[in-house]
Design a protein that fits this description.
Blueprint: H1 2-16, H2 22-30, E1 51-54, E2 57-59, H3 62-71, E3 79-83, H4 89-97, E4 100-105, H5 108-120, E5 126-130, E6 143-148, E7 152-153, H6 159-163, E8 165-176, E9 182-190, E10 193-202
Parallel strand pairs: 3-4, 3-6, 4-5, 6-8, 7-8
Antiparallel strand pairs: 1-2, 8-9, 9-10
The chain binds S-adenosyl-L-homocysteine.
Length: 219
């Protein structure tokens, strides 16, 4: 009951901050964020802030999740790739909107926790893999939509991600050269090439290459 009131307050704040897409607000309403944060932070699940999920990683702030999701312009039949599963929260929101979500995480421990949450919430249209998401998921490509939820250092997105994008599809990725401000950038693949749009400044934990030391390679 208390969570419901907090959730409604958060949804109203998201709407005031420019989340006008009712399907995006509906998806956020239907995913219990408290199930994706550590127990000792459960009372803060509906505050508009990022929270720690272990291994130095964070579950993104709800407004950032909402803005990135809205920017992705998901259709009900979209096949979506997410890089950086983390807690699994963003993947769960995407799974409410598209047909199927493929999500990649480099930390096996985080991924296993996220998988348990997907099963408990009966989110059966999410497929997971441990690996380096900068390489995409070639066996499942092309994707209608791709979202990266870690900050990519560089001027151009990882080439594999643009290659695995369907014509007409888009990639939303926080990126920026080292030491510069990060921006969420949207790339659209058209018949003629790639269009690029800088959307808004952000701050994300880094997108890192390869797997953490000591974790077995799965790809
Ligand atoms: N989407 C998550 C938040 C992600 S935090 C959520 O909703 O909770 C960023 C995540 O990206 C971290 O878990 C980090 O381990 C992961 N990550 C960083 N670089 C990666 C890479 N190259 N491939 C896959 N995952 C990566």
């Amino acid at each position: 009951m208390i969570d419901e009131a907090r959730k409604i307050r958060l949804l109203m704040a998201l709407r005031r901050s420019g989340i006008t897409d009712a399907t995006v607000l509906g998806a956020i309403e239907r995913v219990p964020r408290e199930a994706f944060v550590p127990e000792n932070f459960a009372d803060q699940a509906y505050e508009d802030r990022a929270l720690p999920i272990g291994l130095g990683q964070t579950i993104s702030q709800p407004l950032v999740v909402a803005l990135m999701t809205q920017a992705l312009e998901i259709a009900w039949d979209s096949k979506i790739l997410e890089i950086g599963t983390g807690s699994g929260y963003q993947a769960a929101v995407l799974a409410k909107l598209g047909r199927r979500v493929y999500t990649i995480e480099r930390h096996r421990g985080l991924l296993e926790e996220a998988e348990r949450r997907f099963a408990a919430l009966r989110l059966h249209n999410i497929t997971t893999r441990v690996g380096d998401g900068t390489k995409g998921w070639p066996e499942q490509a092309p994707f209608h939509r791709i979202m990266v939820t870690a900050g990519h250092a560089g001027r151009e997105p990882p080439p594999a991600l643009l290659e695995q994008l369907h014509v007409g599809g888009c990639l939303v990725i926080p990126m920026g050269e080292d030491g510069r401000r990060q921006w969420v950038v949207r790339f659209r693949r058209t018949e003629n090439g790639i269009d690029r749009e800088e959307l808004w400044p952000v701050r994300f934990v880094p997108l890192l290459p390869d797997l953490p030391d000591g974790e077995a390679r799965a790809m």
